Amino acid sequence: MPLHRLSKHEIVNAVTRSPWTTSFRHLLPASRVLKGLLKKPSLVNFSKKIVPEKDRIKWWNIVPGDQVRLLGRRRGGTTGKDGKEVLLHEVVAVNKFRNRVYVKGMRHDSTPEESGRQDKNYHYSRCQLYLGEHELPLRAGETERKVVPVFAKRLGTTSPVWNSYVHRWQWERFATKTVPIIPERVGERILIPWPNPQPVIHADATPLDTSEGEVLKVTYKPPPFSPTLRGLPPRVPTEKEYLRSLYNRNSPYSKTFTANFGSIQPPLEQFLYKELSNPHSRAKKMKRWQQVRVAKRALLNEYIQEELQDLKGRTQGEARAEAAFRWRQTLEEDKKEDRKMRWVQRGGEERLERKIKMKKRKEEKKRLRLVNLVLKDGEPNQVVPKEL
After folding, report:
1. What domain of life does the UniProt record list for this protein's source (predicted)?
2. How far apart are CA 133 and CA 148, in angstroms?
């Protein structure tokens, strides 16, 4: 099944916190119409830039939940091998249409007092995955081993496989080259596990919360009777009986009503099951079509019986043919009447009357203009007609 075209909604909501790849809609090209829609001003605050489809990343190895460091700038934080400090960032979201990675932290142009935490985004190529800390061997002249953070400089993956149970693509990622180099693991593929989803933490109960016993309490009370096919179903009360018992609950009649018809509030399936059911369901449309078909067949049989009762010198075949002709004429007339009724319900008759009224008004104005027409005297081309 081919993929549908991109929509503005998909690009507006392109930032995702899901670490899984379930489809490749982010690889679809944007049409000219969509690019025109993105250029229009909108109340939604989002980036209207999208990367060309040939530059978009198909298999994402940096996903929300990973820890990365940013390349290209020096940042404070964990001390690296050469004495420089490295700041670890947690990935919170990604934008696959822009190849951007959102990290948890502060914008450089804001403070916590002004706007609180705001996540900043960086390009995918500037992020290196954090593998953990490793103790390097001693060098010449060193007395203590250094524990340094290790990052993946080059990534590799296994062949992606579609998991039909969870409906997503799955593959393993590993580091083929690290920074700094681990001497005892040179040439080895270091497996990088996927981040584990954070468990949902529910807030503690407060006095304003509903108790568990109240939630589990069954409030629906079924009627005292059980209408089945084994016996006669109870009679449905009339509107007058129901209203009388509803507004006079303490009266003896109300008690009699409760004993015969159940509770004061009647069950839903007894009164509103037809009104609340979908009239456009496939089963009901099929049932209506079958009823119309049965009615047409019954009308044809009725015409045939009328013609066969009085042949008037005709054969039975000719009588049946005339009955079928009458039947087709009746169906055609019914179809015309039904079409006219729908035309009237749509307001066609009122529009026709208004159109006729406006046409008469236009003709009347035209006639009045001709009646009131007066020619000026002394025109050079004016000719007085001769008397006949």
Report:
1. Eukaryota
2. 5
DSSP 171-211: --EEEEEEES--GGGTT--EEEPPPPPPPP-PPPP-TTSPP
Report in angstroms the alpha-carbon separations of 371 from 288, 361, 365, 374, 375. Answer: 61, 15, 10, 9, 12
Residue pair 93/16 in contact by the 8 Å Cβ criterion:
yes
Pairing of β 127-135 and β 190-192? unpaired
Mean per-residue pLDDT, 53-82: 76
pTM score of the predicted model: 0.49
Q: What is the distance in angstroms between the CA of the first residue and the CA of the last residue of the chain?
A: 88
- Enumerate the domain spans of the chain: 8-192, 239-267, 290-328
Per the structure block, which two tokens stand in for 336? 């015309």
Q: Kindly report the length of the chain.
A: 388
Q: Can the peptide bond before residue 180 be classed as cis, meaning omega within 30 degrees of 0? A: yes
CB 42 within 8 A of CB 104: no
Q: Which two tokens mark 335?
A: 């179809």
Q: Give residue-wise pLDDT tens across range 304-347.
A: 999 999 999 999 999 999 999 999 999 999 999 999 999 999 99
Cα separation, 136 vs 139, in Å, equals 9
CB atoms within 10 A of CB 367: 10
Give ∠ CA 72-98-109 in degrees, rounded to 5: 55
Distance CA 3, CA 289 (A): 36
CB 97 within 8 A of CB 198: no
Helix (H) or strand (E) holding 148: strand 147-157
DSSP assignments along 280-331, one per residue:
TSHHHHHHHHHHHHHHHHHHHHHHHHHHHH--TT--HHHHHHHHHHHHHHHH
- Tokens standing for residue 356: 């006729």
